[in-house]
Amino acid sequence: MTFKSILDEIENNLNKVLSDLPISDVVFSVEPSKPGFGNVSSNVSFLLAKQLKKSPQHIAEMLSEKYSHCANTLVLKSEAHPSGYLNFFANWDKLTQLILSESYLDTFGDVDIGKNSTIVVEHTSVNPNKALHIGHIRNIVIGDTISRILKKANYKVNILNYIDDSGLQVADIIIGFKHFGYDQEPPDGKKFDHYCGDDVYVKTTEKYETDSSLEDVRKNVLKELENGDSETAKFADKITRRVLAGQLETCWNLDVSYDCLNFESQIIRSGLWDKIFENLKEMDLIEFENEGKNVGCWVIRGDNKEEDKVIVRSNGTATYIAKDIPYAAWKLGLLEDPFNYEQYGKEQPSSRVLWQTTLNDSNPVSQNFTGEKVITVIDSRQTRLQKIITSLMGKFKSIPDAYVHLGYESVTLSSETAKTLGLETDGKQAQMSGRKGLYVSADSVYEILKEKTKEETLRRHPEMDGDEIEKIAHYVSVGTLRYEMIKQDLDKIITFDLIKSLSLEGDTASYIQYAYARASRILEKSDRVPSINVDFSLLTEDSELDLIKNIGLFNLQVRDAANNLSPKVIARYCHDLSVAFNSFYEKSKVLDLGDENLENSRLCLVNSLKITLEKSLNLLGIKTPDRM
RNA sequence: GGACUCGUUGCAUAGCUUGGAUAGUGCGAUUGCUUGCGGAGCAAUAGGUCGCCGGUUCGAAUCCGGUCGGGUCCGCCA
Q1: pLDDT tens digits, A73-89
Q2: What span, in angstroms and rounded, lies between the C-alpha atoms of A171 and A240?
Q3: Residue A109's Cα: distance from chain center in Å?
């Protein structure tokens, strides 16, 4: 039961002590201490100060005295700190044994928040008209990491990628191919998604500025896209699927995979909208306007200060946000499923089976990718619209927080990086723009990182063969990219700088992977199979106990990350584990000590660290090379 | 005009949900540590009125109100 055991023991005992006192209930904290204040601390005396009309320090002393009469197995002693905190010191022999034995189990770090219920995580959802850029990567990595964490928290996770294949952005590249004669084959073996985004899309939209007659062409193409039988729609389907294939290559390369691809064009043609429209009317969630600026439209009333939102235009067509409503309801399993399913044409490297929706019913296969809860990862510019969806879904589904919009701030370009792309910003950061061609593609960042890590690895290991270097460079560059995208808070803007992103020192994935490689090498050189049948009382150094404590915090960190949908919690945990291990590594030698018992105890600890680091990095989708 | 969000050392960031002890970390700067289980490392020094003002409290980076500065959103576009 890890470090939580001692927290539970203290909490139970404190509750017993308090039950003998003439006080009303208080909710106190029992937490791991800051360094230098014992191992566990409680704020209980502060909370009682008012009721008992005594100073926190007095109360702490009184509680400490009473606590010493409690039955303790994991606590050695308690101590009243002059500040008023009540600090506890662990019985490390027992606690170490508990934590290290648990860490060897496959289930280590598992927490049960989901109770095996289903949850949908939707992420990526990039228009299939361009290659993924570094901003999209933040979405993808957040979504993938959250999925992994929720799975660890005992949810059954369905991962969806929504393919918006019928919007304006798709119309634009279709115009490029159809009206400006862009070749369907990219030049010099360029990836098709890059070709569409860099060349066709950017150059086509440039022409809108000089030729206003194109606006009509654009509208017509958009209309034709909605009709599945039109020549234009069939052509667009072909093109967008080729782009999608390119985008998926990029995602797979980052160790991201999906369960199902949902095509917007099919949602539109499925008739789901008509059903949800009827529901909305029946439940009085939308109203028809008889007067005012929105006369003739169906609208959702804004909350007090907010404007009404038009859902159906006066000409009877649905607006952008309206398309999201049936999809959100579908994800929650509120609508009868109009789709059949077929497997995607190519296997995912993770070998997870990838399905896609289809309206073709010649060979009907049904699947269920809905969930009791839904998490939609979209950047925070969409917060306003997502709020409306969330509120609507709250009226359809009774469980709280059934539909969650997981928002995050965007990735901008540093002025230096913007400059290399030809934009002078006066020292300010710049928003990326697919339309203007102002972006750094995910594939190019990966390639540059990989070149650098290859050089670095080769310099350290001239003897290594090419395949192994390739593999290590891949692991390190994917790890670096993923770690940079989730190590900070979701609502902090990431200013991406191409040069700074190449750093492999300090708070980076490679620092953590390096710690792992060090641990691996010790175990490899030991020529022994690490065992948990060792003398735990030999592990007494501060650096050893600190490492054990950190290992024991794993499940608490997973719980925190899952409850708060916060990937950075795990990122910080991986970093903390590595710091603790590197510090141990400098202070305590493991091999050639001339004391077999101590060696075995330390090997047991090193192996425990290795297992824990591997498991926690796995939650971040970061691989662990044994050498690097 | 309205709403949301960010503001912590030269730069970047943690801590804020649940108020208490010495505000933690990385980059950069200065200085040490490689005949040692791998220096992508370790140890140490310098650098902070937690944007500003006020309130609540015995106690505020943390809660509340206001204010300033940066960013974003607010269409019968998608």
Answers
A1: 999 999 999 999 999 99
A2: 10
A3: 17
pLDDT at A63 over 70: yes
The beta-strand segments (E) located in A484-590 are 494-496
Task: Give the pLDDT confidence of A381-426 residue by residue, as tens digits.
Answer: 999 999 999 999 999 998 989 999 999 999 999 999 999 998 888 8
Tokens read off for A466: 């090419």
DSSP A385-410: HHHHHHHHHHHH--STTSEEEE--PP
Q: Which of residues 356-385 of A touch strand B (CB under 7 A)?
A: 380-381, 383-385
A582 to A100, A575, A587: CA distances (angstroms): 18, 10, 9
Residue A40 clears pLDDT 70, i.e. is over it: yes
Dmax (CA) for chain A in angstroms is 91
- Does residue A210 register a pLDDT over 90? no
Scanning the structure block, which residue is given the tokens 């141990």?
A584
CA distances from A574 to A148, A200, A494 (A): 15, 42, 20
Q: What percent of chain A has pLDDT over 70?
A: 100
Q: How far is the CA of A308 from the C1' of B56 (A)?
A: 37
Q: Which of residues 173-202 of A touch strand B (CB under 7 A)?
A: none
Q: What is the 3-state secondary structure (H, E, C) of A423-453?
A: CCCCCCCEECECCCCECCEHHHHHHHHHHHH
Domains contained in chain A, CATH given? 4-90 (3.30.1360.70), 415-502 (no CATH), 509-619 (1.10.730.10)
**Which amino acid appears at position A340 of this protein?**
N
Contact A492, A412 (CB under 8 A): no
Residue A60 CB lies within 7 Å of the nucleic strand B = no
Residue A605: Cβ within 10 Å count: 28
Residues 6 or more apart whose Cβ sits within 8 Å of residue A93: A536, A537
Q: d(Cα A548, Cα A584) in Å, to the nearest integer? A: 10
CB A516 within 8 A of CB A613: yes
Nucleotide closest to residue A589 (CA–C1'): B37
A525 touches strand B (CB under 7 A): yes
Can you read off the two tokens belonging to residue A578? 């590595």
CA distances from A519 to A2, A96, A619 (A): 21, 19, 19
As a whole number of angstroms, the distance between CA A164 and CA A136 comes to 14
Residue A301 contacts residue A201 (beta carbons within 8 Å)? no
Q: Find where tokens 């209980």 sit.
A: A44
- Output DSSP code: residue A377: E
Q: Provide the token pair at A255.
A: 């160790």
Amino acid symbol at A223: K
Residues, chain A, total?
Answer: 628
Could you tell me the sign of the dihedral formed by the alpha carbons of A484, A373, A351, A257, in that order? negative
Rounded (5°) CA angle A401-A404-A406: 145
